[in-house]
Write a structure and sequence with these properties.
globular; 15 strands; Creatine Amidinohydrolase; alpha+beta; binds magnesium ion; 5-stranded antiparallel beta sheet
């Protein structure tokens, strides 16, 4: 069942997602060669607590950290570590969520570490733009898979591939609500979008093949071919006129 949110609930989710966006912006500003992914995790947690929010991922299904930090071929759910030191030319995906006044916020960005090569830059840009292409379809009256199709067509036209194993999701009083939102598929299918739906749309895009596998830690998803992957996510409220991106500053 899809929970439709009242304007009052969306107002709280606006706050929750603004907190996420502010923290991601602060983490992004700190990314330089030489720092560890654990440093970013600890900073994210501190910044959330300072804003009276709780990191949403810590303890979620047993995930031990506040932040998912996925470097290079890591797709999602990368585990922060003191030993993982960022190097010039890496790319890092930061996925962060909070619980604020009983509602969840969730967003992700991919950031270059120092100077990266042109293909890495192109992958990051295409992934971010594919998110906005998807969001543009998140309007009342469209079908769910119109979002999916817009993301897939944009990405594949640029020679990149869409991860199939992970999907976007409804969000509200739970981190993962109905519906699931694949980042691929034919248009015109699935539920009709309605005012009051809040969707976390999150394309995960690979430079090479689309396949992924999970490392022995049980969490970290990496590309099978070990080529780079990027990830962007926004939580978006559907309203009568246009999609409202809750997790954008
Ligand atoms: Mg999400």
């Amino acid at each position: 069942m899809i929970h439709l949110k009242s304007p009052q609930e969306i107002a709280v989710m606006r706050d929750a997602n603004r907190i996420v966006a502010e923290i991601l912006a602060e983490l992004k500003a700190r990314i330089i060669p030489g720092i560890s992914t654990m440093y970013l995790n600890e900073l994210a947690e501190r910044l959330a607590v300072k804003r009276r929010a709780r990191p949403a991922f810590k303890g979620y299904n047993g995930f031990p950290y506040a932040l998912c930090a996925s470097v290079n071929e890591e797709v999602v759910h990368g585990m922060p570590s003191r030993k993982r030191i960022l190097r010039e030319g890496d790319i890092i995906s930061l996925d962060f969520g909070v619980i604020y006044r009983d509602y969840y916020g969730d967003a992700a960005i991919t950031v270059p570490v120092g100077k990266v090569d042109d293909t890495s830059e192109a992958l990051i840009q295409a992934t971010e733009e594919s998110l906005y292409q998807g969001i543009a379809q998140a309007v009342t009256g469209n079908r769910l898979s119109d979002i999916s199709h817009a993301i897939q067509s944009y990405v594949e036209a640029r020679g990149f591939s869409v991860v199939r194993e992970f999907v976007g999701h409804g969000i509200g009083r739970s981190l993962h609500e109905s519906p699931q939102i694949p980042n691929y598929g034919a248009p015109g299918l699935g539920v009709r979008l309605k005012t009051g739906m809040v969707l976390a749309i999150e394309p995960m895009i690979n430079r090479g093949e689309s396949g992924v596998e999970i490392l022995a830690d049980g969490w970290t998803a990496v590309t099978k071919d070990r080529q780079l992957s990027a990830h962007f996510e926004h939580s978006v409220a559907i309203s009568d006129n246009r999609p409202e991106i809750l997790s954008r500053l």
